[in-house]
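INTERNAL AUDIT FORM
Audit reference: QA-55
Scope: verify that the stored structure record matches its stored sequence.
Auditor: D.O.
Record contents follow.
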Amino acid sequence: MLVQIDDANGVRTLTLNRPEALNAFNEALYDATTIALRDADEDPTVAVVLLTGAGRAFSAGNDLVEMQARITDPAFQSGQYGFAGMIDTLTALRKPLILAVNGLGVGIGATILGYADLVFMSTSARLKCPFTSLGVAPEAASSYLLPQLVGRQNAAWMLLSSEWVDAAEAQRMGFAWKVCEPDALLAEAARHADILASRSIPSLIAVKQTMVDPTRSEITAAATREYAQFAELLGGAANADALAAFAERRGS
C-alpha cells in the first residue's frame, strides 16, 4: 500500500509508504496520495488530516528516474491524477492539514509545507528545494506560497540556492511550527491533531476556508506560471546534465 491510512479520534493519518525510494513521488504515489486526501476531505467522520512518511525520509521529492523517462520514453504513461492533481487537491482541501516531517524533505517534500496548516519537524529532518541544481523551475505554487509563509528573502534562498536547511533553521525561517525529537514527533503532532479534531468539523472547515480562500486564485495562477517555465526547462541542457549525473551516481 503506497499510502498507509490510519483513523483515530477524528484524525486520519496518511503515511507515504515507499521507504525504499525515500518516499519519492512517482506517478503511482501521486495518485494514491491524491485519492487518500480526497477521501479524507469527503469523509464526514474525519476532522483533521495528518501526513507523514515511512522510514527515514518524509519525501525525496519527484522520482528522478520517472522524470528522465518522461523526457526520453515516448511510451511514458502519466498517472490518473499525477502531480497536478495532487496540487489541485491540496489547494482545495477543506480540512486542517498537519505535516509531521520525519526526515528529509526534497522538492515537493519541502514545497508541500506551503499547504500545511501546522508543520512539525524532527530535529533530524532537513529541507531542500533543488530546482536550480536540476535546471528546472519551481513547482507546487512555491514561488507564491513560500514568500507568503517565510518572507521574500528566506524563500529566495530556498528556491534559488538548492541548499539544505536543517530543522532549527527551518523553524527560525517559519517553515516549521514545532521541532521535536525523532521519537516524539508523531505523538506530538497527533496530540495537537487530537485537540483540533475535538472541535466542530463545520467550524474547522469555516476557519480554514476564511483563511485560505483569498489565496486560492493566487495559488492557481502561480502554478500555471510555474508549469509553463518547467515545461520550457525540462529536458534542456542543464536539466539533461543533472539527470544524467543522477543516473550515473545511481548506477555506480
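Auditor finding: record pair retrieved intact. The chain has a mean pLDDT of 95.
Action required: none
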